[in-house]
User: Which sequence fits this backbone?
């Protein structure tokens, strides 16, 4: 199965989380591509079996502007074959902690085969590794069911 991570990061926290997730997949022997959203070729989206979206939250819980084209593409039609997961970092000081993760989750659950979400406080820590491993395992389980 063809799997990719597409992420956006302004502080480096979500980028760090994306790389930690990618390493967990590699430890399980799976090949996974990883793209900053600006470098992801949207026209290749239909070629993937799994898409993991990483986003920070902007403003009052909004999806960052650079993520809007990906979100629009995903909302444009049904992608039942596409197994998805959404992850992000945020600061729980704000009332809409990881609001962009919630926004992607809400739109993906009706358009894709959404498997899991993950929210991490600020910079991912060693203490987050168990939750990261669970995130990866849920994606793998969903992919196994459909294989």
Assistant:
């Amino acid at each position: 199965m063809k799997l990719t991570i597409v992420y956006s990061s302004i502080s480096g926290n979500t980028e760090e989380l994306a790389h930690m997730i990618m390493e967990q997949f590699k430890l399980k022997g799976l090949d996974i591509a990883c793209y900053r959203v600006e470098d992801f070729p949207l026209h290749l989206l239909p070629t993937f079996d799994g898409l993991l979206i990483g986003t920070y939250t902007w403003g009052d819980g909004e999806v960052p502007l650079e993520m809007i084209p990906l979100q629009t593409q995903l909302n444009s039609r049904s992608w039942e074959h596409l197994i998805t997961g959404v992850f992000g970092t945020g600061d729980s000081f704000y009332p809409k902690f990881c609001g962009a993760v919630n926004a992607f989750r809400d739109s993906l659950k009706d358009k894709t085969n959404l498997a899991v979400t993950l929210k991490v406080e600020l910079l991912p820590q060693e203490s987050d590794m168990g939750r990261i491993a669970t995130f990866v395992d849920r994606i793998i389980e969903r992919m196994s069911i459909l294989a």
The domain at 3-146 is CATH 3.40.50.360 (Rossmann fold). The beta strands are 3-7, 33-36, 50-56, 79-90, 112-121.
